[in-house]
Each structure stands twice: as C-alpha cells, then as structure tokens.
Amino acid sequence: MKEISELTGPIAKLIAELEANPMISTQVMLDLLADASLTINDVDPFSYFNHPEGESYGRLSVYQSKRLKVLVLSWNPGDFTAIHDHEPAEWGAVQFFGDISHRLYSLENNRVVLQQAATIQHGQMVGVTGKLIHAMGNLSSQPAFTLHIYGTNTEFNTEFNTRVFDLELGKVVMTEGPAFLTRNPASCNVTSDGVTAKGETWNDYVQNTTVWRSKQ
Fold first, then answer.
1. What is the pLDDT of residues 136-153, one digit of tens each?
2. What would the DSSP string read from start to end of 123-191?
3. How many CA atoms within 13 Å lie on the side-chain side of 16?
C-alpha cells in the first residue's frame, strides 16, 4: 500500500484534502471527487486484472489511514462481489470507469431482499454509507475500474469492517475488507447464522455470479 507521500497527481491531492478536513459528509465527499476530475489514466496504475482465481474481482488498496480508505477495484468480465456492506464507514463515494452492474438490498428478519437492480455507467459517481447493503460486478464484455473511498470522522476501530452475507452458507461474516464470493475462513469472523434469500433475490444473485463461478 502506498503512503500519501508516494502518491502523485489528482488522487494524492484528493486524499490530502480529505485528510485535512475533520468533518466530511457524503455530499462533501462527492463534491471533492467531482472537483478532482479524475480520469481512467489516474486509476490505471492501480489495475489488478490478474487477480488470483479465488478472488472474484481485483482489489488494490491505494491508501489507508485511521479514518480513510481508498481502493481501486478492477473488473474482468464476469467478476462480481458477494452481497455486503461497509458498516463502520460514515461516508464515502464510488466513481465508475466502465459500466458496472449494481444491486441494492435490504435486510428483513435475516432475509436479504433485492430492492434495486441497475447498471451504473462510465463516469458516474455515487455516494455510499456503511449501512448500504449492495453487490456489484461486471456483466459487460469489457474490463472496467471503480474507485472506492470510505471514511469516518472518528477512527475505524476494528480491522473487521465489511459485513458479507454468504447466501450459499446461510451465514453473515465480517471480513478485513474484501467481499469476495469465496474467502479464507482464517481472515473472517462468523457473526450470525440463518441469513437467507428467496425468489427474485436468489435467482438474480445466482445469475450474476454464474460467469465467475464457471471459471473456478
């Protein structure tokens, strides 16, 4: 992971602005991201398309401090995440460099329910908070990038900061950040059993992840 002193260009400037501001909101984050005018050339140095077969997308940490995390995700056709959130994050944003499929969910009595299915197009920016439950991936025929920024106005007080809803195992687990479709049990904590998905939610999830699973 690169320190801010090693980063250059618009991403380094954006990180410095975020670290200098003690009170960030998602709207402030989006405004600063828009002002940064990032291009695909700014994120390309952090590409990770040759990620291990067991990881369902490329995930590279660009910068991390006690209150800020910046990542670039690389998406081969068929790459997809598990359903997850980023619970400790108070604010954040994602910028899209390519067309990415995005799913929003709610949790109703331990049942994961699909609320929205959309394709977010190249160039768009969306705000996120830790309580957002979602999944994303590349259902197109072209590779893509996404830039992810998550932050808090205090400190991230735990290394386990991503809650993954493992529908196949019917479990909720906390990981150290990744939301891969499969994961190393040694790097996560099981928090509860009994999570389920039915009907449209389950069918959509299976359809989205079929291409990546067929490669395994």
1. 999 999 999 999 999 999
2. T-EEE--TT-EEEEE--SSS-EEEEEEEE-SS----S--EEEEETTTTEEEEESS---SS--GGGEEEE
3. 11
**What is the average pLDDT score of the chain?**
92
Q: What are phi and psi of 157, to 5 degrees?
A: -100, 10
Q: Looking at the predicted structure, is the pLDDT value of residue 52 above 80?
A: yes
Mean pLDDT of 199-213: 94
Prediction pTM value: 0.93
Query: Which residue segments constitute the domains of the chain, with CATH numbers given?
Result: 4-214 (2.60.120.10)
The type of residue at 130 is G
Query: What is the token pair recorded at 129?
Result: 């908070």
At a CB cut-off of 8 Å and minimum separation 6, what does 8 contact? Answer: none
Q: Are strands 171-175 and 188-193 parallel, antiparallel or unpaired?
A: antiparallel
CA angle 38, 39, 41 (to 5 degrees): 125
